[in-house]
Amino acid sequence: MVRYDAANTGAAPDATGPSAVLTAQWETGRTLGTPTRPTALDEMVFTNGINGICGFTTGGAYTTTRSELNPAPVAVIRDRVYATRAGAVFTLDAKTGDERWVFTPPIETNRLTAPAVAGDTVYVVGQHPTQSPTVWALAALDGSVRWRVELGGETAGPPVVTDNRLYCVTT
Length: 171
What we know:
- By secondary structure, the protein is mainly beta.
- Helices cover 0% and strands 41% of the residues.
- It starts with 38 loop residues before the first strand and ends with a strand.
């Protein structure tokens, strides 16, 4: 998740932060490259770095990794981790790291943004070398395309979903 929740809204109404001096509860010696912002779900924490997606229990035990080369933040919903790599969107089982599905856009895509998940839909923006960015709406269950729309501009950031609306900044 890019901004506190799977839809990337930035809202964290039920979250509470630490109220005292912070101390490390656990650390890992695992090399993560340059990790992205961590995403937490129940007793697990996920991060995506140049060396892959890593999942840890909050007690520190390493649980799973995938060697994917797109260090964009991941979205974690229920038992699934949604992520992107250079030319595909995919989901993993949060406990085992097994791949559940992969979606490869039928047009050349040189970069996909971090995913946003709202309800049963995964949203991602694809950057194309010769045309405007495209927003893809995929079924969270199997990765099938629900719809797509080409945006204006040359580049676009990750989508944000709130109040049945999708927002995306383009340049």
